[in-house]
Amino acid sequence: MAKLDLQADSIEQLAKGINPPKKVKVEAVAMDDVKKLGAEDIVSEEKGSLSTGTPLKRGPGRPKKRKIDMMPEADAIRLHVQRNTHSVQKASDLAKKEIYSSEHVFVEDGDEAFVETDSTHRKEEWLELVASANEHRILKGTITSITEISSTKDQDDPDYIPDFMAKVRFKTGQFNVNIPSYVLYHYHYERMNRAMAMDIQKNMMRRLGAEIDFVVRYVDEKTGTVYGDRLSALSMRGVRNYTSINGRKPNIIPGMIVQAKIIAVAREYITVDAAGAEIRIPIEEISWLYMADAREFDGIKTSECYRVGNRVNVKILSAEPKKVKVFNSYYTLIEATGSIKQAKANPRLKYFAEFNPGDFYAGVITGITEAGVFVNLDNKMDCVCKHPTSGRRMPIMGEQVVVRINSKDEEKKFIYGSLK
């Protein structure tokens, strides 16, 4: 640091009562900076005092960058969706004029009809998203796509593990809500590897088209970027419906039938959202009739067609609250089991007496196993037939056939027959 002593020109000036000189510390200035600022900006010789000149400022419209803005996208998203945090980034007045600007529409006198525009939709949706972020309101949206979150690692890196995010359409689509996989549903992987990540992606793809609940964690009015958290919404609904609050009885207890939304359909199971409890229902508990594939059970043109977005009745078999940790956030989720078939009457008990040995019936093949060929008879009963030995080609799934009833098992309510 260079020091500069400012003194009076003569002893006479000091005698007249001029204050004694003060030592002022001045930071050393590079010569290039001196040339830019000018000598008069550093020291004023006429006044004999230090002049700092005009301080250097950041240019207009260039706010200081936040640390989160300089993070990799995956890390920034992870911070945005942390539980018990939320952030609302409002647009400037100038940006609002561009966002909500709309062309002038001529309206004839006396015509009071109001036509909504994209600007009005965006404004309404923005207010709902802000309310969700500030007040933890639960909103609804539809999953439209699954994307991979960009990473700083190369895909050829052996340590590279992809991370995925669901894009959710909210109302008219003015804002697309981004929900990372780890707050879309809870998966039980202690250590993640690439194979597990691919399994998560496959599970997320099964949820395309599903309507889900979420809570907003971050929303930017100008860019339209929104990050949501489904686990928070699931936790709030589950605690409200399945637990005892202030000594009152839970709204839902085991044994009750709940209307649920189908959010994923796979070959061997269906996943439903039953009033705040996400339940995976195995194929054995889906229907009283034989099913080889839950995705193709409508091949016999029955009313039991399971598709994402449909609603079904589910009997709750068990339900227990469980506290789980996702990164730095804790959620109370409901671990439950359920059954679709137990929520309705067993057709075997109702229609078993209608089928008699020696009679012929038309049916559709719904399963081919080592035990035999399963034929659905008018969506009432299953007839188990032996595999054809000779004189007939091998049956195929979905084929319409004629069967002859050979025998009945009164105890198990099974019907056995043969293909014709």
Question: Please, could you describe this protein's structure?
Answer:
This protein is an alpha+beta fold. Helices cover 19% and strands 33% of the residues. The protein is built from nine helices and 20 strands. The chain has helices at 11-15, 31-37, 39-42, 73-80, 93-99, 118-135, 194-205, 230-242, 347-351, and strands spanning 2-5, 23-26, 43-44, 49-50, 87-89, 139-148, 164-170, 175-180, 211-220, 225-229, 257-265, 269-274, 277-282, 311-326, 329-339, 360-369, 372-377, 381-385, 400-409, 414-419. Strands 6-7-8-10-9 form a five-stranded mixed beta barrel, surrounded by four helices. The chain is elongated. Mean pLDDT is 81; it is low at 1-8, 10-31, 33-53 and 298-303.
Structural class: alpha+beta
For this structure, the CATH topology of the largest domain is: OB fold (Dihydrolipoamide Acetyltransferase, E2P)
Our Rg estimate from Cα atoms comes to: 35 Å
What number of structural domains do the residues give? 4
What share of the residues does DSSP label as strand, in percent? 25-35%
- What is the mean predicted local confidence, pLDDT? 81
Q: Reading side by side through the largest sheet, how are the strands ordered?
A: 6-7-8-10-9
Question: What is the overall silhouette?
Answer: elongated
What letter string, H or E per element, gives the SSE order? Answer: EHEHHEEHEHHEEEHEEHEEEEEHEEEEE
Helix content: 10-25%
CATH architecture type of the largest domain: Beta Barrel
CATH homolog superfamily of the largest domain: Nucleic acid-binding proteins
Amino-to-carboxy terminus distance: 104 Å
Biggest beta-sheet profile: 5 strands, mixed, barrel
DSSP summary: helix tally: 9
CATH class of the largest domain: Mainly Beta
Count the E strands: 20
The low-confidence runs, each spanning 5 or more residues with pLDDT under 50, are: 1-8, 10-31, 33-53, 298-303
